[in-house]
Amino acid sequence: MLGSLALSSVAIFVAELGDKSQLMAMTFATRYRAWQVLIGITIATTAVHAASVALGFGMGELLPTEWIALIAGVAFLGFAAWTLRGDRLTEEEKGKAARSVGSAVLVVTVAFFLAELGDKTMLATVTLATHHDWLGTWIGSTIGMVVADALAIGVGLLLGKHLPERMIRYGAAALFAIFGGWLIIDAALALA
Fold this sequence. Notes:
Layout: H1 2-16, H2 20-31, H3 34-62, H4 65-85, H5 91-99, H6 104-116, H7 120-129, H8 134-159, H9 165-191
Helix pairs in contact: 1-7, 1-8, 1-9, 2-3, 2-5, 2-6, 2-8, 3-6, 3-7, 3-8, 4-7, 4-9, 7-8
């Protein structure tokens, strides 16, 4: 379980770097208190990643692990390309974050829950859960995402708009490519 927790924490932390939800976290932090934003992110992430782990664990029980690892490797290469392309908040999305009314925690929770459905961090969690301990993957993926978004909030509050977004995006893409290549090679050796 500890290996799954550590791997999931690192993989999801990397997946979240430069992601749209990190940009959302920075935007919400300009309107609400940082602790309210973090609580909302934690609640949403816990729920989305629980569903992701359940889906991944179910797939892992039904399919041969070597093929899953190969598919996971290809998926991680796709995540690298996705990360390299980058995400940006549209003016409409920025406006929605700024105009949100009501409980800050509820607003952030709902926004993050909806933003994470089908996002690369959700897909990465599904992928990890097919091959690793479900509880460690769930806890690790949640920790990785919350830490990455906490970092975004902190950096955003300190540096404003002067973030080295390109460097973060390239570094995250490189790490995804390395993880993907490693999974593909490992799976190919197991199938040979």
